[in-house]
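Quick one: DI3L2 exonuclease from Pardalotus punctatus, structure tokens please.
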Amino acid sequence: PDVIIEAQFDDNDAEHGQDHLQDTLTDDIKKLSLDTGEKGKAAGVTGVYRTKQDDGPKVNDPRLLLDEFLQRTAKVVYILEKKHSRAATGFIKLLADRNSELFKRCAMFSPVDHRVPRVYVPLADCPPDFVTKPETYSQMLFICRIVDWKEDSNFASGQLCKSLGQAGEIEPESEGILTEYGVDFSDFSPEVLECLPQNLPWVIAPEELAKRRDLR
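--- reply ---
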């Protein structure tokens, strides 16, 4: 295992396939082993042969190894804070296996952001005619929020929150981005609006302008 053999791979090797390459490597290793053994006998050396890359004896008990040879491992025991909003923009489509029980209960949500996993969403959250006319919603953007992801499942579980509109239009795309990043873009409350000047049109007072730098 400490010896690396660099083999020449050309078109002839490609024609004979991987088996030919494997046989070539096996023959080279046998020749190298025989050469090494003969050299050792000629020099009168017997015992354990060690290459330059060997730093010490082979041990199976990791407790006998030095710290520099160990790879530290760990596991997550608790999530202190969820940074992601668990919301994603994407498309819904029917499951591929139409004969499965899951097909009757769930649809597949595919996020636009490929860093987010695909999500099973209940058919009850989908439009009423989605099962009969799935092509109608192939370019429709939806917002989905992930609620769970079981350890034994390749896909997360979630709920459809709302339909945004056609993909490629500015308003649906913008609303999807803001929702994903948890930005509150709802209308200001009356309490907030009361903090604004009520006498319109409002102008900056001259004394205020005098102590400010005009960047208009």
